[in-house]
Specification:
Layout: E1 3-8, H1 30-37, E2 42-50, E3 74-78, E4 88-92, E5 118-122, H2 154-160, E6 165-171, H3 176-186, E7 190-199, H4 205-216, E8 220-222, H5 224-231
Parallel strand pairs: 1-2, 1-6, 2-5, 6-7, 7-8
Antiparallel strand pairs: 3-4
Bound molecules: pyrazine-2-carboxylic acid and zinc ion (ZN).
Length: 234
């Protein structure tokens, strides 16, 4: 087995006290994530970053009132892939967050960035949401139409490196971490989500629903204490 750790979206805008889309307790995850980053068993350590243009479709102020309240309103999003324009999805609206080049898009300094081998910037196409580090909300994969949304073909890199197992941590557990873990499983990797190394936008029912989806996709839920035994190494 060869394992990769994916640290999802540990960015200022997702963290208290000043993040525009702060996830409760997100910053407190740093010691747990840093301990995982230092496990010798990982072949590759990846960090993803939400990196949106200012006109991104998920930003509430980019839509006309009254249906433009962040968190509570949903709009209809169309698949931007050529020939797939009839495909639509509901998209929850968010406060403006992680705009490319702003301090809110930076990785929080508490994360040991020296240990990161590869950064994946995602959500860069204004027309479509991209929670997962692998594919956009319609499942468009990086190398195809999704080129404008993401700067790395993560599935390709993991495959080239012979990765068999993927461990996902970070925020938000019920959005980007869940989607990344589910897509890793769909891409054929053994996929795990480290439960004490994530926090959620909606920690109650949001997380319960996310866990049902994760289990249905074959993603294993593990604790950080179990990871060392699973990845081997010292
Ligand atoms: C995320 C909402 C909007 C996440 C990103 O990182 O989970 N959530 N954009
Ligand atoms: Zn986002």
């Amino acid at each position: 087995m060869k394992a990769a750790l994916i640290v999802v979206d540990m960015q200022e805008d997702f963290c208290p006290p000043n993040g525009s889309l702060a996830v409760h307790e997100a910053r407190t995850l740093a010691p747990t994530i840093n301990a995982l980053l230092s496990h010798k068993g990982f072949t590759l350590r990846v960090a993803s970053q939400d990196n949106h243009p200012a006109d991104h479709i998920s930003f509430a102020p980019n839509h006309p009132p009254p249906n433009n309240l962040p968190f509570t309103c949903t709009i209809t999003m169309t698949n931007p892939a050529p020939g797939k324009e009839t495909e639509t999805k509901p998209q929850r609206l968010w406060p403006v967050h992680c705009v490319a080049g702003t301090p809110g898009a930076a990785l929080i300094p508490e994360i040991d960035a020296a240990k990161i081998d590869l950064y994946v910037r995602k959500g860069m196409d204004a027309r479509v949401e991209m929670y997962s580090a692998f594919a956009d909300a319609f499942g468009n994969l990086d190398k195809e139409v999704n080129r404008s949304s993401v700067d790395v073909d993560l599935r390709g890199v993991l495959s080239e490196q012979g990765i068999t197992d993927v461990f996902c941590v970070g925020v938000a557990g019920d959005y980007c971490v869940k989607s990344t873990a589910v897509d890793a499983a769909r891409a054929g990797f053994r996929s795990f989500l480290v439960e004490d190394a994530t926090r959620c936008v909606d920690p109650g029912e949001g997380w319960e629903e996310a866990k049902r989806e994760l289990k249905a996709a074959g993603v294993g839920l593990v604790s950080s204490a179990e990871v060392e035994g699973l990845v081997g190494g010292v």
